[in-house]
Amino acid sequence: MPPKQPAAPTISTWLKQTPDPDLQGKQVQYLVEFVNINGPSTISPGSGFAAILAGKAPQVFIPTDPDGAATKRNIYRQLIDSSGTTQNREKVDILNNNTTQVWVDGANLLKRGFLKHPQPRVPRSPHRHSRL
Fold first, then answer.
1. Nearest Cα to 36, choosing from 87, 70, 75, 5?
2. SS3 readout for the chain
3. By CB atoms within 10 Å of each CB, which of 3, 29, 36, 132 scores lowest?
4. How far apart are the first and last CA of the chain?
5. Closest to 51 (Cα-Cα) out of 14, 93, 88, 9
6. How many CB atoms lie within 10 A of CB 58?
7. What would the pLDDT profile of 13-58 be if each residue is shown by its tens digit?
8. Are 62 and 97 in contact (CB under 8 A)?
């Protein structure tokens, strides 16, 4: 049986560090999904939208499964852009445990490949095939 629906995560504070570039000028909320071998839970209610602060990254309190059924947790982010349009939620991280309670939305997510920002194109060197 999949785990029960988690409680909503909460933005606990703002850390002085560079946030994900996608967050600038937007509002953000977080959602969590508990997962075990039998599948995912229903996704939690949202944390409530908060405006991104310049030069700050949100530190989020992530609920743990009180029943201990979850073996990992998926973290989702949902944004409201500067025009007021609510965007679809996207999975931004996976916590492979049921113990971590503090999570920071920051540049490390890009390094770990969770966010799909365009990568700079690297020019290919021309290859010449020899004909014999």
1. 70
2. CCCCCCCCCEEEEEEECCCCHHHCCCEEEEEEEEEECCEECCCCCCCCCEECCCCEEEEEECCCCCCCCCCEEEEEEEEECCCCCECCCEEEEEECCCCCCEEECCCHHHHCCCCCCCCCCCCCCCCCCCCC
3. 132
4. 64
5. 14
6. 24
7. 999 887 777 788 899 999 999 999 999 999 999 999 999 888 888 9
8. no
Q: Pick from 75, 10, 88: which is nearest to 43 by CA?
A: 75
Beta carbons within 10 angstroms of residue 64's beta carbon = 18
What range does the domain containing 68 cover?
Answer: 10-111
d(CA 96, CA 73): 7
Measured at the CA of 74, the angle between CA 113 and CA 32, to 5 degrees, comes to: 130
Bridge partners (DSSP) listed for residue 16: 56
pLDDT at 130: 44
Q: Confirm whether 95 is domain-assigned.
A: yes
Residue 14 lies in a domain: yes
pLDDT over 60 (residue 114): no
Number of domains in the chain: 1
Does residue 5 form part of some domain?
no
